[in-house]
Amino acid sequence: MTPSTDGTCPGHTGPCGRAAMPGDPYCARCRIASQRDRDRVIQEWEAVRDAAVAAAKAQEAPEAAPAPF
Q1: Residues in contact with 13: Cβ distance below 8 Å, sequence separation at least 6, in sequence order
Q2: How do the pLDDT tens digits run along the chain, 69 residues long?
Q3: Among 35, 26, 30, which residue's Cα sits nearest to residue 7?
Q4: Do residues 8 and 20 touch, judged by C-beta distance below 8 A?
Q5: Strand, helix or coil at 44?
Q6: Fewest beta carbons less than 10 Å away: which of 1, 2, 59, 69?
């Protein structure tokens, strides 16, 4: 995103041209879109992280058991 000098929103995924909110380079619509994208990326990352942690714990579990001999 490149800030606009005329007070219009540069858009989140493409040119927007609406009036930007005071103190924010985005208009309200593009701000909500950017927050939704951020939330989606965070959820995807957390799902991958949780799967990796579960896989690591499953691999470590047999090593923690005492040897049968």
Answers
A1: 33
A2: 555 567 788 887 788 888 888 888 889 999 999 999 999 999 999 999 999 999 998 887 665 556 666
A3: 26
A4: yes
A5: helix
A6: 69
Joined together, the tokens standing for residue 67 give 């040897």
Residue 7: its pLDDT value, please?
A: 79
Burial track 14-43 (b if 16+ CB lie within 10 A, e otherwise): eebeeebeeeebbbeebbebeeeeeeeeee
Task: Please report where in the chains the tokens 């049968």 appear, as a residue.
Answer: 68
**Residue in 40, 20, 23 with CA at minimum distance from that of residue 11:** 20
Tokens for 69? 């001999």
What is the rounded distance in angstroms from the CA atom of residue 13 to the CA atom of residue 9?
11
Q: Identify the residue whose tokens are 């219009």.
A: 8
